[in-house]
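Morning run. Coffee first, then this:
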Amino acid sequence: MNQLIAKVLGVATGTVDWKATFMLAAMRSAAAGVTWAFLMLLSGNPDSFFPFLLLGAPIGVLFMVPLALVALVGAKIFPPIGLLGLIPLVFIVSGDPLLWLVERFRHGTVPMDDFKLINGKTILVVFNPEVVEFVQNAKDEAVATATRVGRDTFEQFREKASAKTAAFRDAAEPTLEPEIGLEIDLEPQTESDQEIYEDALSKFNTLAATNGNADDMRDQMMRISTLCDADCTIPGPYNFVADKLSQIDLVDKFDLVIQTLRKGHANCAGSRVDQEVLESAYFGLGKVCWNEGHELYSFRAYMDGLDRWRLAGNTISQSSPLLPRIAFVASRMFAKNAMEHRENSDLGVELLDFCEASGVDMNLEIDVSDAPGAQS
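And here it is:
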């Protein structure tokens, strides 16, 4: 029964203190009965005073709460059924002010820390404090892991970019000066990949050094990203893009970075090696956002990267590489954290859509204990 109720309410069974949840429902129902009894008395119906006063708790627990659950389930099948939920909502919530006053005068009466004067839900879920503490500890551990892995990921990108650029320059032929009397072809020549790359790189660096316009910076990143297809002869465009991600103000230019990565990932559909570099850049971007305290941006980067990873034919399992596993675990943690604090339920829906598309159970336990430890 508890598992069924938890599924309807969209919470994990193991996180709920069911005894406190049912006790709170009974207390709110009893308070509602008292409220409605006095309303009947004031409206000139004294005969209804004692029935409401004595039967408030049973009415709430045995009729109103089940009706609210039926309305929640029915609304998913036929939305107008959800209107039935207004009946138990009006009844139960009417007792909240009285119960709130009791809590103010006798603290600890209500088994819920943040009980409000008016609570906009028929069923209030009380979470197990031990589980909440465990989630917080897991969150702290994820922060430490993200700090280490994110830093190491971008350091690898920088090292690869530097090495490949140096190798290319060593292999490049010296430019020949025109000899006297040599005819010079003045016809316009088509720019080579190398010339496009160097021109875009130069313009991007100039814009970055002078705090240039974000759209202009994106244009240059897009030019380099366009070169990144399966037949590209330039060794470093992807590494360049990944390297620049860690140097950009993430909040102001987050969409710029994400759109550049999407463009590059689409352009290199013929090369899984290059795609994997971009997917790792997504996960690295998520870690950098998380390290800087931007949880929502981190979630968006992780989910975008996981979607690209899924579209390339992969799924989430214990045998998946470390970065996708961390992205999945962290995204689920962010979504549940937001939903428990009633901040953003869309995150949970987005994660659920990903799980359904990839055939993965949203509650699949993924082990990330093999992640490198955080450095002090």
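Residues 2-127 form one domain. Good start to the day.
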